[in-house]
Design a protein that fits this description.
The complex is a heterodimer.
Chain A: H1 2-15, H2 17-26, E1 32-37, H3 44-49, H4 52-57, E2 60-65, H5 69-77, E3 83-88, H6 89-97, E4 102-110, E5 116-120, E6 135-138, H7 143-154, E7 163-166, H8 169-177, E8 183-186, H9 190-196, E9 199-202, H10 205-210, E10 216-222, H11 223-228, H12 230-249, H13 251-262, H14 266-275, E11 277-278, H15 281-284, E12 291-292, E13 295-296, H16 299-312, H17 322-328, H18 332-338
Parallel strand pairs in A: 1-2, 1-3, 6-7, 6-8
Antiparallel strand pairs in A: 3-10, 4-10, 4-11, 5-8, 5-9, 12-13
Helix pairs in contact in A: 6-16, 8-9, 12-13, 12-18, 13-14, 16-17
Chain B: H1 7-27, H2 39-52, H3 59-90, H4 92-105, H5 114-121, H6 125-149, H7 153-161, H8 166-201, H9 209-218, H10 222-250
Helix pairs in contact in B: 2-10, 3-4, 3-6, 3-8, 4-6, 5-6, 6-8, 7-8, 8-9, 8-10, 9-10
Classes of the chains: A alpha/beta, B mainly alpha.
């Protein structure tokens, strides 16, 4: 897969040399951009596969697969990651609280039903009370973990009643196949795989979302990079918008590409993508989401309450006021690209 | 010529120098507490951990679980490895049969077979301890085998010339000669097991000091991370000291 990426990149460099030269004439393009990403079933994979991101940023991209949004935070802080693609809102809320040098420039999706509980059918879990004495796995520090903790809290369960295990998606699948865990809160493709393997989805997201446990996947940019290469950021957002349009207009075609990148069948890719609420950029620069200058968006409050919850969990030391979250959201790039 | 400083004084001086550097760098606001917490932050983090525990478990519970895993993995791995290694040193056929596996296992990063261990053994203690066992075994085996091989042949020949049986040669010549290397192997194995602890606690954790360090590191709670590193480091030194003490008691003849 790596080798293929290289040849693709080579071909693209050749073909896009003219475009690149034209770009350099009016805007300083970055010499290279480090992208932290996750392999997942989303339209982002279309823009990656077809080289649209590369074209949009006007630079060679170095893709690094990250283990979690927290890894993206660390890499951005260390200056070795410029753009975090589809990092979780929980990690981002922590990053903003800690004053890490990053900006939130756009939303990929509102996770909504995309991440939810899957219970082992044989475990006979029907209601929250049935979770007592059971083992539930989730990758700690993730958006799923946040939802699971919210689920326990809103149902009056403690981590003494339920054994909550910290496992990566691959480990969840392995333990699931041995019948060692009773439930898991995780995202696709692991989620769809365990559901096929003797699992039943248990809907928790709707009540949790109403209770304030909203989670989303975001695009974050290292502040220094955003200041130095605003055009690359704008081009990057446009590339994703083009991929999202493809998923909406030609879903079958998009699903084939996403499936190839994520290593699942096109049918699974389609089913996974239907679960997410991909918010178009044009709607994001409004009060409903990220807001615009003078029009604060609701999303800052989502990040603030997420951070407050993390403080309660002692995952971070303290959370700043709402204005710090509003300041970390920068919709200039969206407005420049689609305004 | 100035009088040479005793080594404990040099160790103390280097620790004091590091401490001064640490205080200087952190109190001047030169680095953010996210990257390097100051002594005050670290102390606060440490007392918080001791008083309130971490994510529902007391710090003693975390430390205890980790030491239990290290102990079980080390003792089983070193015991089996040493027996195997002695056999390999004594019987060339066994050496030929077992060597490829030992040589293959020794440099293998434990994370490489993490998922396999979960699939085979599950997410409980057995997979964690097996990982530590597999880390200790080859190191102990190689040390024991080399210990037996390095027994001077003159000693073996003398013993046989005096009419000693195979068993007597093993019991009275090979074992005492090989023991110093066996114990050095055990110390190396303990170090490797200890180093593998974090990898082992990645398997479905929610307890253990290694897991705690990783979990706190996720959101850059560097005060907890440093506190955890300090605890794990001090415990590591203590384990090593114990092994050195055992070594001195058991093989007081080494090097003579």
């Amino acid at each position: 897969m790596n080798g293929m990426g290289l040849t693709r990149r080579g071909a693209l460099l050749g073909a896009g040399a003219g475009v690149l030269a034209a770009r350099r004439a009016w805007a300083a393009a970055p010499p290279g951009v480090n992208i932290g990403f996750f392999t997942e079933t989303k339209p982002t994979m279309v823009a990656k596969n077809l080289g649209w991101f590369e074209e949009g940023a006007g630079a060679k991209l170095a893709w690094t697969e990250m283990g979690s949004g927290a890894d993206i935070n660390t890499a951005i802080t260390a200056g070795s990651c410029d753009i975090g693609l589809a990092t979780g809102s929980v990690a981002t809320a922590a990053a903003i609280s800690q004053g890490l040098p990053l900006q939130l420039v756009g939303i990929v999706d509102n996770i909504g039903p995309g991440e939810d509980m899957t219970v082992r059918t044989a475990a006979g879990i029907k209601s929250p009370a049935d979770f007592k004495g059971k083992k539930v796995a989730t990758p700690f520090g993730s958006t799923s973990h946040f939802r699971l903790l919210g689920f326990l809290k809103t149902n009056g369960l403690t981590q003494r009643d339920v054994t909550v295990l910290d496992m990566k998606p691959a480990a969840i699948q392995a333990a699931w196949s041995r019948g060692e865990i009773d439930a898991a809160y995780v995202w696709p493709p692991a989620r769809s795989k365990i559901a096929e393997n003797g699992g039943t989805p248990l809907k928790t997201w709707d009540t949790l979302e109403k209770a304030g446990y909203v989670i989303a996947d975001l695009i974050v940019v290292r502040t220094g990079f955003a200041q130095q290469y605003p055009d690359a950021v704008v081009g990057f957002l446009k590339a994703y918008d083009r991929a999202l349009a493809m998923w909406q207009d030609k879903p079958e075609e998009a699903a084939v590409i996403v499936a190839k990148e994520a290593g699942v069948t096109p049918a699974v890719a389609t089913a996974d993508m239907k679960e997410y609420d991909f918010v178009p950029f044009r709607e994001q620069a409004g009060p409903q989401w990220l807001g615009a200058p003078g029009v604060p968006g609701k999303f800052a409050q989502v990040l603030k309450s997420t951070a407050d919850f993390l403080v309660e969990q002692r995952s971070i030391r303290n959370a700043p006021g709402l204005d710090a979250f509003q300041k970390a959201i920068n919709t200039d790039f969206i407005r420049k690209a689609f305004g | 010529m100035p009088r040479a400083l005793p080594s404990w004084a040099i160790a103390g001086l280097s620790a004091a120098l590091l401490l001064a550097l640490w205080i200087g760098v952190t109190s001047g606001g030169l680095v953010r507490d996210l990257f390097l917490p100051g002594p005050r932050d670290l102390w606060d983090g440490l007392t918080e951990l001791v008083q309130e525990g971490y994510k529902g478990r007391s710090i003693l519970e975390h430390m205890g679980m980790s030491l239990l895993r290290v102990g079980a993995g080390f003792l089983t791995g070193a015991a089996v490895g040493t027996l195997l290694g002695l056999g390999m040193g004594f019987a060339p056929r066994l050496d030929a049969a077992a060597s490829p596996f030992i040589e293959f296992l020794r440099p293998l990063p434990q994370l490489a077979y993490l998922v396999l261990l979960i699939v085979w053994l599950g997410i409980g203690e057995s997979s964690k301890i097996t990982m530590l066992f597999l880390a200790a075994l080859p190191v102990a085996a190689v040390a024991a085998r080399d210990g037996v091989r390095n027994v001077p042949s003159a000693r073996l020949q003398t013993a046989r010339a005096l009419g000693a049986s195979d068993w007597q040669v093993l019991r009275h010549v090979v074992l005492p000669s090989a023991l110093p290397e066996v114990l050095i192997g055990a110390r190396l194995a303990a170090g490797i097991v200890y180093g593998t602890l974090i990898a082992a606690e990645i398997i479905a954790g929610s307890n253990g000091i290694g897991w705690m360090i990783m979990d706190a590191g996720r959101f850059l709670r560097s005060d907890y991370v440093f506190a955890g590193i300090a605890m794990i480091g001090l415990a590591g030194i203590a384990i090593d000291r114990i092994l050195v003490w055992v070594e001195r008691r058991v093989v007081h003849w080494a090097g003579r």
